[in-house]
Amino acid sequence: MNDAAPPAPTTAGMGRGHARLIAAALFVIPLALAPLFPPDDWYAGLRTSRLTPPGWVFGPVWTVLYLLLAIAVQRILVARAARRTDVAPQ
Fold first, then answer.
1. What percent of the chain has pLDDT over 90?
2. Measured between alpha carbons, how far is 23 from 25 in angstroms, rounded to an integer?
3. Rounded to 5, what percent of the chain is helix, strand, coil?
4. Angle at 16 between CA 83 and CA 80, to 5 degrees
5. Residue ranges of E strands in the chain
6. Is residue 87 within 8 Å of residue 79, measured between CB atoms?
7. What is the CA radius of gyration of the chain?
8. Is pLDDT above 50 for 35?
9. Which residues contact 63 (CB under 8 A, 6 or more apart)?
10. 51: pLDDT confidence band, cut at 50, 70 and 90?
11. At what angle do helices 58-85 and 16-33 cross, to 10 degrees?
12. How far is CA 41 from the centre of its chain?
């Protein structure tokens, strides 16, 4: 019978699961908090350029922007973890 202890888990780098969790949090948290901070009346009273897009455009654009930022963060974290462990990302 072998009474040897199993090998301890390594903490050499951040795995894909952790990177995805962080990226998802960076995407979800701002979207969840956005309704708590609506624009004030002063914003509606501003004189704006003719090039200013209508208000309904900001929601979809910021959603896509934060999604792309979350994907970029996830890719950076996975690449750093792969570099530390000398394993190519899959």
1. 8
2. 5
3. 60, 0, 40
4. 20
5. none
6. no
7. 22
8. yes
9. 31
10. very high
11. 160
12. 30
